[in-house]
Amino acid sequence: MSSSRLSAALPVDHADAVLCGRVRTPDGPVPVLVRDGMVHSVFAQCPTTADLFDRDDAASLTGTELCPLDELGQVGSDATFQLLAPIDLQCIKAAGVTFAVSAIERVIEERARGDAQAAATIRAELEEHVGNGIRSVVPGSAPAQRLKAALIDAGMWSQYLEVAIGPDAEVFTKAPVLSAIGWGAEIGIRSDSTWNNPEPEIVVVVNSAGRTVGATLGNDVNLRDFEGRSALLLGKAKDNNASAALGPFVRLFDAGFTMDDVRSAELDMTITGTDGYVLSGHSSMREISRDPDELVRQTLSEHQYPDGFVLFLGTLFAPVQDRDEAGRGFTHKIGDTVSIASPRFGTLTNRVTTSKDAAPWDVGIRTFMRGIAKRQSAVS
């Protein structure tokens, strides 16, 4: 990927957007704002993005010019300034099974025990018994409870349907603090997975006060074979090196960009293989079964996040097209390029590799905080 493509990855109305991110500099990572094609470091005012997202005046910070936007490179390039994931100390959370299609696909994985070849038959059976009902009920409502009772009687109940139409959302920790990758970086799939896919999602940003302050794009990589064998393998299916991508930038909420833009977002995804394979998909946030504010509320319920958190909101995308063999559906190949785009959020692009071969995550919280302290003492 060329760094010149980053300008094309901005929202269509980027001139009116407040875009925040993180950049690796020779001195260490810094929070940045993007204005008029220039990248400005706000490290002096906000040493972390957690600090930046806590400020009501974030949009008005001036900062120090670093470089033109198109001089930013992806991590691993020889660029002086490299774009990182646009968060740092925030917990990385995810909501699962928030769309009817993804709920059905999770049940398929469970019933197939991770066997892709068994998926087609099970999918047809589930659509016949579950499809219309699960798309029409409000989770936790009386009609949802009646549907649950009917499905239990029919022998079709699943733990995935519980979180799809029951009162409690599935919210889990997707990845450790500081482990997310950004635009242009290689995204990791476990080397021992044979059935997997990207998950294009909107990701909301919540500050330390529990206020949702903005949103970005994310790829919540999913290993269908692992989670399908057992839901208790969710950690292995979801939390691996380089398996959470975010970016390119966080767009802060303002008068012209609000939670309603999250609710109405349309996402397009393209997967391009080195073998010439191309798959396109579309996801609409209008079809989400739980409102984003409700997912944030449940994440905050009886828990505090003193550095804030980000929350993947789930995906409608469920690739069922066969890639190589009839009946096996889609799975990634090394070298696939995944681009997730939405007009008011921009485009997040990553190339697929294995988690073993992806760049190792080597900057933890201790190293990160020591670096901040060292730079602050140098200028005091």
TrEMBL record:
Domain Fumarylacetoacetase-like C-terminal: 167-352
Entry keyword annotation includes Hydrolase: yes
SUPFAM superfamilies linked to this entry: FAH
Any one Gene Ontology molecular-function term assigned to this protein's record: hydrolase activity
The organism's place on the tree of life at top rank: Bacteria
Keywords: Hydrolase, Metal-binding
Family the entry assigns: Belongs to the FAH family.
Protein name per UniProt: Fumarylacetoacetate (FAA) hydrolase family protein
Organism for this UniProt entry: Sphingomonas japonica
